[in-house]
Amino acid sequence: MHYDVEAVRRQFPILSGGICYLDSAATSQKPNIVLRAMDTFYTSQNANINRGVHALAEAATVAFEDARKTVQRFLGAKHAHEIIFTRNATEAINLVAKTFGRSLAQKDRIALTLLEHHSNIVPWLQLKEEKNITIDWIGLETDGSLNESSIADVLSKKPKLLAITGVSNVLGTKIPLKEIIKKAHANGTLVLVDAAQMAAHEKIDVQDLDCDFLAFSGHKVYGPTGIGVLYGKEKLLNDLPTFLGGGDMIQTVTTDGFTAAELPRKFEAGTPAIAEAVGLKSAIEWIDSLGIAAIAEHEEHLLAHALEKLQTIKEVKVLGPKDAKKIASCISFTVDGIHPHDLTQILSEKGVYLRAGHHCTQPLHNHLGVVATSRISVAAYNTIEEIDRFATEISHAISAWKK
Ligand SMILES: Cc1ncc(COP(=O)(O)O)c(C=O)c1O
Q1: How far does residue 91's CA lie from ligand 1's centre (Å)?
Q2: Do 59 and 50 form a contact (C-beta atoms < 8 A)?
Q3: Common-topology check for domains 5-30+292-402 and 34-288
Q4: pLDDT tens-digit profile of 207-252?
Q5: Is 0.90 topped by the overall pTM?
């Protein structure tokens, strides 16, 4: 079927002013339908969930739980109660680090890869500080893919958990998760997938992947900020101790102690992001209406075109795989003689928005031997013309900088 990108663009009010938004890996733009769903919730259904018995509270609770069922379907989870709403992917990963981590002892190990975002590094480094555990790092090939012998070496040390990204937020590298999860399980290692850069670009099926935990953020999948998701296998979530304490996550409280609520409320203390859950549901339905495979195919064309264009500019060095089939979401690069921050500012003045810096991946940047990079990232609404405009502006910036 023909992918009508102009029809997609018309659904995003922020794009109507002619900006060239190539920063969707940081946060995606939101279609009208998501904005309207949240507006409708606030204008006709707003009430706090769970605690009320009046009609509005019931309607809000149903809307919130419907959102959970939509996420369950989106991820292919077996049960709706395996979906825990958090603030974002960062909080979802912290939830696991701070609950699963409580049972770890000094002899235990956690495995990470050099591709990880700080959100999937710092919670484990905090655990290292607290428990004196060891962290083992899976290394990279020169093109940014994971080094096979390093995977085998790290897993042979039988870490308690491997926390791994599905797609690199810098190099765009797509990770062969299923294969790695199988190897990890063979070593008795649980796997947490950081799907923050994956969820908008690839069909996820947690049962097929057989991952133990998976985290993503609503705001990177055309939904609102303030809501994220942790998926966990039922048994594992049941076995974990509680995370944040407060209303809603308890069954009983006495002056001596408390008993935890059943899943999923056990991990959802306090008033959750109700309107945001409604927005996330709408965003997932919006993705489904286009089909994630169709979006991914469109984005692959954009990335292939960007790789081609960038490689014709001699001052540009693309980091990571040069094959669009091996990447999703983004491409990072450096430009000889121009600092990424300067480049991004110059392009911003032309209405072309990309990102510069370490992209919350200092260990990866250290490994690559660069302090900062420029990154473009694509989404369902980007066009080939925008990639051309971006490449032209890069060439202009280089010429102007040299003068
Ligand atoms: C790979 C990856 N993991 C985790 C995160 C954290 O997402 P959030 O800031 O929404 O929690 C990001 C954000 O850019 C990311 O790219």
Answers
A1: 10
A2: no
A3: no
A4: 999 999 999 999 999 999 999 999 999 999 999 999 999 999 999 9
A5: yes
